Amino acid sequence: MTGIAESYILKEPLGVISVLGSWNYPYLTVLCPLVSVIAAGNCAIIKPSELSPWSSTQLKYFVSRYLDTSCFQCVLGGVKVAIRATSIKVDKIIYTGSTEKGMLVAQAAAKNLVPCILELGGKSPCIIDKSSDLAYTASKLAFSSFFNFGQTCTRPDYVLIDY
Questions:
Q1: What is the dihedral of CA 122, 128, 134, 138, to 10 degrees?
Q2: pLDDT, tens only, 6-23
Q3: Is 119 one of the catalytic residues?
Q4: CATH topology of domain 16-120
């Protein structure tokens, strides 16, 4: 025996990932995680938001047309479908949406000991100090407040001013 050992990393797919998207960015919050799911060699259950029905229908069409339906399924529906998609035994849940719904997803994942990734909306302050250029700051604040009709997770909810 020479006493020499070798180690290596064996990358294996995790399994089936449940991807639940949001209504305010219906394509982005489904397709960005899905790219990673596919790249890692996993299968996916995709559930777009029922609040964006046209986008959800299009996602279902594209998934069924361009992806292997034995590995990737897009399911449409409301609360009952979301509950089902988070209560079945999957290997990971990826959810983008409200904090309130995120807590429900986390509770459902915990019941099956399923890891989850939660991208939740929250409070985003804008802090303006004495050294700020007020005209520039106001234009950026207005832009970020109205971008995507104000439906962005990191949109400033309130302003803290030091003047």
A1: 0
A2: 898 888 999 999 999 999
A3: yes
A4: Aldehyde Dehydrogenase; Chain A, domain 1 (3.40.605)
